[in-house]
Amino acid sequence: MERVAMTAQVRENAGKGVARGLRRNKMIPAVLYSHGKSLPISMVNKDVTKVLNREGGEHALINLKLEGGAGAGERLALIKDYQLDPLSGALMHLDLMEVAMNEKVKIQVAVHITGNSIGVKEGGIFQYGQRQLEVECLPTNIPDSINVDITNLKVNESLHVRDIKAPEGVRILTDGDATVATIQPPISAEKLEAMLSAAPTAETGEPEVVGKKKEEGEAAAAPAGAKGKEAAPAAGAKGKEAAPKK
Fold first, then answer.
1. Residue that is last in its domain, among 99, 122, 142
2. What φ, ψ does residue 17 adopt, rounded to 5°?
């Protein structure tokens, strides 16, 4: 797996105001987690984005040099999670997890489908199941992806997690009965026509909403148990100054 060197600054203060100030200076707020403890840090936005844009960059092993503060020193880390602005796609926050070369880690790895299945050649429709698998292995054995060959998959057949051969040194933790890929039978012309005729028309009125009508400007209630974060964008579409790919 790829190994990269990065630098981070240990920061004493946290909060939304601090986070906004960092972003204005083209830095991003980040947190390094280690054995139940957390250390607030900041990193250069473009450096993180460059790593995320690389093939398998999300699983890169990071030689992290911490500067300033009591936590200064060198650490080995993996990217645990990152958050993006839901509108602009700008990188907002990064979570890192400290690891040791001799300690196994649990991490999500993408499924990479290979081959052109027999079922698809016969007119079947390929359908994804699991797009990621949870694996356990040493940091040096983390694969960029898990390859799944569907060449021999026929119509009405499925491939499950238990059918996948894990790379050497890697143990798949995802439930073995979970479906990874399925070849659905083709839709007949008659069935397609029936589906289209059953679709609602433009003349169909909107359903009446049962409940209290919210007045204009009334704030929506926050979900119970919601907790704020240093920058609370929803994690979703990947992006950055020029959006990082997933």
1. 99
2. -65, -45
The tally of CA atoms less than 13 A away on the side-chain side of residue 71 is 21
Determine if residue 69 is left, alpha or beta; phi over 0 gives left, psi from -120 to 50 gives alpha, anything else beta: left
The pLDDT tens digits of the residues spanning 23-48 come to: 888 999 999 998 888 999 999 999 99
Q: Look up residue 17 and give its amino acid.
A: G
More confident residue, 204 or 151: 151
Q: In the numeric block, which tokens belong to residue 167?
A: 């790379």
Distance of alpha carbon 78 from alpha carbon 76, whole angstroms: 7
CATH value at residue 91: 2.40.240.10
pLDDT surpassing 90 at residue 171: yes
Give yes or no for a contact between 8 and 62, defined as CB atoms under 8 angstroms apart: no
Check if the beta carbon of residue 72 is closer than 8 Å to that of residue 10: yes
Could you list the beta-strand ranges (E) of 115-193: 125-128, 132-137, 145-149, 158-160, 171-172, 179-184
Encoding tokens for residue 71?
């936590």
State the residue range of the domain holding 49: 3-99
Which backbone phi and psi does 22 adopt, to 5 degrees? -60, -45
